[in-house]
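Propose amino acids for all 609 sites.
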């Protein structure tokens, strides 16, 4: 990394210093900064310095284009700026109250999401293995696998304590210690009496309590760090924080959650007696909110007591379709989104949701997109209302998600009727949720400010053809690295002449030593690779001549490369020439023009962002 140290130091200095850097990431060719104040960055100096191709600003990011060696420069810049491996933040950018709220939620939940997804799927598989007869529910295999899958959720406050502490900029391990205290067995579900006041609360698998306690602990820690002498600060500060914040959390949050849950439970019981349809709508629509605030277990207690006593329950069926409404929303998002990162997150989330584990779906997918969360609540309300109309009962304790259905089967006169009724309600709630999401979901796009009355909300860039020739779908060419789309989306051309021109105004990123390929970035940010022929790297530059150099600014139609088409074919090489967008993930869609031949300068690719 030493070879890039001077470059990194200059970049950090010219973007305004390390105190001006909020976060730093990188893509294929560029450093992507979020700066407190972009106006103090020296754009012109950076554009002209050796080692930097150009500077661009887009999507709230200050982008320093480096080239293919950007990962090495990125690591050195992080070291020079003191960002470390775990730091993405060195300051605060202005955000609206809504953005701050969702930034807090995603910052707390997303870092642990992959483990939550894996754990949820594992719990579902464990139940499937029992159903398939691979082992019994009382076997050691089931107990072990269930423990592995359940551990993440049981000790969720520990994980969230770490994440919340990170967001509130306090000692991460102190946040974990607070979460661990909330999970300590001797403190959960038992009567604890303080000055004649008895508290009984359970915090395992909860979300909100640890977040609130760490939010209380963070300013307390900052205050103590200012007043406690340095010589004892390292252990006295966390001692006092835990001694003050955790008891306050137990004494105040636990009773409040219990009180809210008890009042909700009593209200819902009365509502069922008054009108089960309205009760189903209310419970089905709000159940996910109850789960988020950690009051759902208190509401469920009467039902659990009934079932454990061998008596049927009318309340639990009302929430039977809720997880499936949530799952249908996430499934629709998975189908519709073009954001590969979101697609990768949504896939295991909806699989996990089938088995009743919806935390990954809620916190990772729908809640940050509040309209989608509302749709899932509406779907749950519709399903709950239908179930309330039918009036089925739960007869035994069962699993979650699809494995809750056997609990609706009666050995008496009702038989399978309750199961059929809940299945009907579940199907309706899923169809409504899925259809609404497919109709209303849109990937987040950058809104383009315009003085035109109508305006537009999607950026569009059109790239011209760099070559005269026959147009081919990228998927049809012989090299699988290109045809599979692994290197990016685009199109291919079979050249009819030996000249390649710039498809847009931009800057040359890379001129390969073998002259068979050239990379450039457009002024709008598209990173373009034009690869002349298949395996032509083996020609080692023979029959090719380049007319531009790295870092050179070009205009649309400028000559980039010339080559001897006939000699290359005679040498036994294919001249299929792919033009791909190497930063395809930055775009909503990349649309080739519908034509079989093209001339230089004709519209060839439309990029939507």
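Proposal:
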């Amino acid at each position: 990394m030493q070879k890039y140290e001077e470059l990194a130091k200059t970049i950090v200095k010219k973007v305004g210093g390390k105190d001006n850097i909020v976060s730093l990431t990188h893509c294929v060719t560029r450093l992507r900064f979020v700066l407190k104040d972009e106006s103090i960055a020296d754009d012109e100096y950076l554009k002209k310095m050796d080692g930097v191709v150009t500077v661009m600003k887009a999507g709230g990011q200050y982008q320093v284009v480096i080239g293919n060696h950007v990962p090495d420069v990125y690591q050195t810049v992080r070291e020079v700026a003191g960002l470390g491996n775990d730091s993405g933040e060195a300051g605060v950018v202005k955000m609206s109250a809504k953005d701050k709220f969702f930034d807090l939620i995603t910052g707390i939940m997303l870092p642990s999401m992959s483990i939550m997804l894996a754990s949820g799927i594992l719990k579902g598989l464990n139940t499937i293995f029992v159903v398939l007869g691979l082992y019994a529910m009382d076997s050691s295999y089931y107990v072990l696998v269930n423990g592995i899958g359940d551990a993440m959720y049981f000790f969720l406050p520990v994980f969230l304590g770490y994440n919340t502490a990170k967001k509130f900029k306090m000692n991460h391990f102190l946040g974990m210690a607070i979460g661990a205290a909330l999970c300590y067995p001797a403190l959960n579900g038992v009567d604890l009496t303080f000055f004649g006041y008895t508290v009984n609360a359970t915090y395992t698998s909860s979300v909100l309590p640890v977040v609130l306690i760490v939010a209380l602990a963070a300013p307390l820690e900052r205050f103590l760090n200012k007043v406690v002498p340095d010589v004892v600060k390292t252990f006295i500060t966390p001692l006092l924080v835990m001694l003050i914040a955790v008891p306050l959390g137990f004494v105040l949050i636990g009773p409040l959650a219990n009180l809210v849950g008890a009042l909700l439970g009593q209200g819902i019981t009365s509502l069922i007696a008054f009108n089960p349809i309205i009760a189903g709508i209310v419970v089905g629509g709000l159940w996910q909110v109850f789960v988020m605030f950690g009051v759902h277990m208190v509401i469920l207690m009467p039902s659990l007591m009934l079932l454990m006593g061998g008596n049927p329950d009318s309340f639990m069926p009302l929430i039977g379709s809720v997880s499936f409404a949530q799952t249908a929303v996430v499934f629709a998002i998975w189908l519709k989104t073009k954001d590969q990162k979101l697609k990768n997150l949504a896939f295991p989330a909806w699989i996990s949701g089938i088995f009743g584990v919806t935390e990954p779906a809620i916190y990772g997918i729908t809640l940050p997109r509040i309209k989608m969360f509302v749709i899932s609540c509406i779907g749950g309300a519709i399903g709950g209302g239908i179930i309330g109309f039918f009036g089925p009962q739960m007869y035994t304790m069962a699993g979650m998600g699809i494995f809750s259905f056997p609990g609706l089967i009666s050995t008496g006169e009702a038989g399978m009727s309750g199961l059929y009724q809940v299945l009907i309600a579940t199907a309706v709630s899923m169809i409504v949720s899925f259809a609404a999401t497919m109709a209303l979901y849109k990937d987040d796009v950058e809104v383009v400010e315009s003085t035109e009355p109508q305006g537009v909300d999607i950026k569009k860039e059109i790239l011209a053809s760099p070559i005269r020739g026959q147009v081919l779908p990228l998927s049809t060419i012989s090299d699988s690295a290109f045809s599979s789309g692994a290197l990016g989306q685009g199109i291919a051309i079979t050249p009819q002449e030996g000249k390649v021109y710039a498809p847009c105004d931009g800057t040359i990123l890379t001129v390969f030593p073998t002259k068979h390929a050239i990379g450039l970035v457009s002024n709008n940010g598209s990173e373009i690779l034009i690869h002349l022929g298949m395996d032509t790297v083996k020609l080692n530059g023979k029959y090719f001549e380049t007319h531009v150099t790295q870092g050179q600014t070009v205009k649309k139609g400028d000559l980039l490369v010339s080559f001897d088409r006939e000699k290359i074919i005679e040498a036994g090489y294919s001249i299929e020439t792919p033009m791909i967008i190497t930063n395809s993930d930055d775009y909503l869609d990349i649309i080739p023009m519908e034509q079989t031949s093209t001339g230089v300068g004709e519209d060839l690719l439309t990029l939507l962002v």
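The first helix runs from residue 5 to 14. Confidence is low (pLDDT under 50) at residues 86-92, 445-458.
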